[in-house]
Structure formats: C-alpha cells, structure tokens
Amino acid sequence: MRMTPNDRRAMGLVAAFTGLVVGAALLLAIAAITRMDTQVANAAHRQYCDDVALWQAEVERGIPLNRRAGQPDYRDIADEQCPARLRPDAPTHERQLAQF
After folding, report:
1. 73/54 Cα distance (integer angstroms)
2. Which of these, 54, 61, 36, lies nearest to 98 by C-alpha position?
3. pLDDT of residue 33
C-alpha cells in the first residue's frame, strides 16, 4: 500500500507530537530528580550543622573525646554556613556516641 502525501504529513505530525510528549515527560522527570537531590543535600547539610553544634556543646561541657556525640567541624564551614549554634542543653537532640 502506497502512502499519499497527506498520509506522510499526518505521520510526521503524529511523530512530532509523540516526540513532544516524550520530551515533556523527560523534563518533568529531570525536574523531580533535581528537586529530590536538592532536598537530600539540604537535609545532609542541616544534619552536619546539628552534629557540629552538638559536638561543640559537648566540648564546652567538658565531655571526654571518646564519649562525645555529634562530629567535629571537619569541613571547616560551620562558622560561615550553619545557623546559630544550639544551646548546650538543647533537649531536641539525642546523644549518639561516635565510634572510633
């Protein structure tokens, strides 16, 4: 069966529309993945800041190194990139001992 010029144009339009739908779906998927990556990175940064604040609070309270919770500021970014330090007696954090 031979295709007429109108049939070829119709097939071209269908192919173009299909390509647009697939392209839009891919862009939406990429946007969702990027948003999730940003949320994970923000959560990791908040956790880092919380751990550094907890470590500093325990240093100030004189807790021995092998009994401290949290982590030291090994990236050296807490002063610039973390919100105000938590109070040493902040009840919102659970203690988790660092394993060496």
Report:
1. 11
2. 54
3. 92
- The ranges of the chain with pLDDT < 50 are 87-89
What CA–CA distance (Å, rounded) separates 70 from 52? 6
Closest CA to 15 of 27, 4, 23: 23
Distance CA 55, CA 32 (A): 35
Name 71's Cβ contacts closer than 8 Å, sequence gap at least 6: 48, 51, 52, 55, 98
pLDDT tens for 79-93 read 888 876 554 445 555
Q: Helix/strand/coil (H, E, C) string of 53-82? A: HHHHHHHHCCCCHHHCECCCCCCCCHHHHC
What residues form DSSP beta bridges with 11?
Answer: none
